[in-house]
Fold this sequence. Notes:
Blueprint (H helix, E strand, L loop, with lengths): L4 H11 L6 E3 L6 H14 L1 E6 L5 H11 L3 E6 L2 E5 L17
Parallel strand pairs: 1-2
Antiparallel strand pairs: 2-4, 3-4
Amino acid sequence: MELSGFQRRYLRQRAHPLRPVVHVGGAGVSREVVNAVDRALLDHELVKVRLHEPQDKRAMARELAESASAQLAGLVGHTVILYRAHPEEPRIELPTRPGA
């Protein structure tokens, strides 16, 4: 499922008060980082991940989202906002547009 622009905006608004729960260091997107993001998404559905000195932050954000089977909701500075609905009990209801 691809997020639409207004859904990404909604998720960025919800993520604003959140603190990053995972930090990606110089080693980049390792298996341990992906496992930590996976656990965080399972617990919270919407998480922030802080990238420290990335070579290409956009590529790293896409790689992290793809590796964790999550949607990239935003990239603000060096902070990635990821969303993945809980498989059994989703807590965040994404807005929809009438007629969509």
